[in-house]
Amino acid sequence: MNKYKILLIGIVLDAIGCISYVIPGIGEFADVIWAPIAGWLMTKLYKGKPGKIAALVAFVEEAVPGLDIIPTFTLMWLYTYVFNKE
């Protein structure tokens, strides 16, 4: 898959994760559903050990109240395609 397509998907998934701030009252309930889905999607976008670690970080970030604002998918894209020189 094209790296820019992965970036676009990541930005959309990060935006979905922030929706809980828009809907007062049901936001935390939505996070309970979204957290495992975000972790699973991270493993599908990024393979291997880095993908598994990022999936755990995405799960925790979505599950803990107040951390939804962190763009985990976008940060993983930056790590994979910009900062990682392997």
What does this structure look like?
By secondary structure, the chain is mostly helical. The protein has one domain. Helix content is 73%, strand content 0%. It has four helices and no strands. The relative contact order is 0.18. The model has no long low-confidence stretch (mean pLDDT 88).
Question: What labels would you give this structure?
Answer:
single chain, 86 residues, mainly alpha
Q: How would you summarize what this structure contains?
A:
The chain is 73% helix and 0% strand.
Number of helices: 4
Proportion in helices: over 70%
Rg over CA atoms, rounded to whole Å, is: 13 Å
- Give the H and E element order: HHHH
- Tell me the strand percentage band: under 5%
How would the global form be characterised? Answer: elongated
SSE topology sketch:
Elements: H1 3-18, H2 27-45, H3 48-63, H4 72-83
Helix pairs in contact: 1-4, 2-3
